[in-house]
Amino acid sequence: MIFTAIALVAFAGTSMGNTVEETQSESIVIETTKTDESDDCTEHAAALYETLIDADCGSPTCGGDDIGLLNDLMALCSL
Amino acid sequence: MIKIKLLLVLFITLTTPIFSQSGTITYSVNISTNDKAIKEDIKETYNKLIEIARTQEFILVFNRTASYFNIQNKLTDKNEYEAKMYKISRSAFTARNEVFTNISEKETIERTYEDILIKKKNDSYAWKITNESKKIDNYLCYKATFEEFFPRRDGTQGSRTITAWFAPSLPYNFGPLTYYGLPGLILELTRNSTTFLASKIEISEKQIPIDFPKGKTITHEEYDNKLKNQMGM
Questions:
Q1: Cβ–Cβ of B152/A75 closer than 8 Å?
Q2: CA 20 to 30 Å from B196, out of A7, A13, A24, B157?
Q3: How many CB pairs below 8 Å do chains A and B form together?
Q4: What ipTM, to 2 d.p.?
């Protein structure tokens, strides 16, 4: 999986004596292109599961869980 | 001595048809779709699963004491994606497992894809038989219903109505899936949006043996927990 990540690094430094204090900060930004096909597939399978188990009673929690069905749906994502 | 022999022959002649009849029923599948709105992003897959389920046929093999129910047209020479979609359509709409029913023991054994045996002892189903009748393949059938309870996801108890049409003239107590116990073969059964309808009925004078699978059995709950562990739930 390739993640989008942003890292920020900041630091401050001071000098001793009668010198002017200087604060320095530095930020590092790393951007990459995000592709996460397995997450998309899992979301699709989960959405399908919710629809299938509630198909006959009209709400997401009024159906009964079917672990076998869920297992079969998730297996699509291992292709 | 001759009289005894004659009586024996008469007894065998009269009782053999009763004790040796078996049969097979082929069921076609219909899925009813309601007006429920399906989200656009899953509509195509959802409709595809229904389309696949409607092509499936199931067979019920029975004798006087036991029955076997399974898919008739098993999928062959399909790619991996199609095979998985076929399996999902069975899970979602028709029947995932093979079912063996023993009337005298009042129990069913389901054999899963993974060759796991799930045993369930059933009390008699509380069928309510009505006067409503219709003909299915020239057999007069009566309607019976049964309220099946299940645990909902929200923790409350849910129920669904199982509707069966059985033929008293076919005095075998079996039917599709795990449903049995009516005074006649179930020729039509509706569970949720799925209806199994007998499309071919064959009664045989021969005794068809039903060989139950041997091995360790587990409960449905144990099976579900096994799958949950595999999925990391």
A1: no
A2: B157
A3: 80
A4: 0.82
